[in-house]
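SEQUENCE-TO-STRUCTURE ENTRY
===========================

Subject: a protein chain together with a token-level encoding of how that chain folds.

Sequence line: the amino acid chain in single-letter code, read from start to end.

Question of interest: how does this chain fold, as expressed in backbone structure tokens?
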Amino acid sequence: MATTSYHVPVLLEESLEQLDLKPGAVIVDGTLGGAGHAQAILERTAPDGVLIGLDVDPDAIREAGLRLGRFGDRVRLVQASFRRLADVARELELVAVDGVLLDLGVSSHQLDRPERGFRFSPGPESPLDMRMDRAGEGITAAGLLASLSAEELERVFSKYGELPGARRLARAIVEHRKLGPLATAKDLIDLIQGAGIGRGRQHNPATLVFQALRIAVNDELAALEEGLAAAIRILRPGGRLVVLTYHSLEDRIVKQTIRSAAKGCVCPPSFPVCRCGRKPSVRLATRRAVEPTAAEVEGNPRARSARLRAAIRLEAA
């Protein structure tokens, strides 16, 4: 039976508006998650719109299949990372699509299941896994903590978590390895507190540590860069790209990628005329990031950091 509370879609109405949905549209949801956005897209594109849903997490694919079953053959689900958008489009013989939605980050379902290890839960039952696809061969967060050098750990916490005290935490982890492994979320939380990371700060520093490890485990930023480029390529002229981010690293990549695609020319400012010949491939649909309303944040606190950016594919690209 489908789980109706699997995920509360963030910025739902704003996302649907930016996608400019019409009956018969072919839309790619590259981060299917709990299928909240997907269900609304299918309802808005009835009676013959098609949704291609991607997710690297097999649990998400299974739950989405149950939730979206009533839409029949209007739904095609593929277990794959959105970084493979171009490959999936080719395999499904899609020449071009009308819209692509990327809702980044971790779904409520993943956060609320201790065995996934995404949540900094004090209970001993939460292993440091953090892989989106647990059936894959990728290294877990515990594996990274056990194998990376102090310098490599510092780089992970600094680059992906922008963590004050990254060097101190990295050294504390390496020192702790002499006593035993960090296997659970509680182990890591205790170490963070013992090392005095974030002491006196308003926000829990574990948020940044867990974010950094999750990004490293799943190679999320490189996947985002590849996925954005692929999404722009598979859009038809006039097609819409809508991206929801949840931290500054993601938002920066989305902002820079869309603006670069809208600019076209990459010649140095010193060149009197363009020599690269690169043309704009999109135009901005949102000049600034769209943020959730106070009412939405009150109803769904996990929406508070969400930012939405959108672009429209150009004819001449």
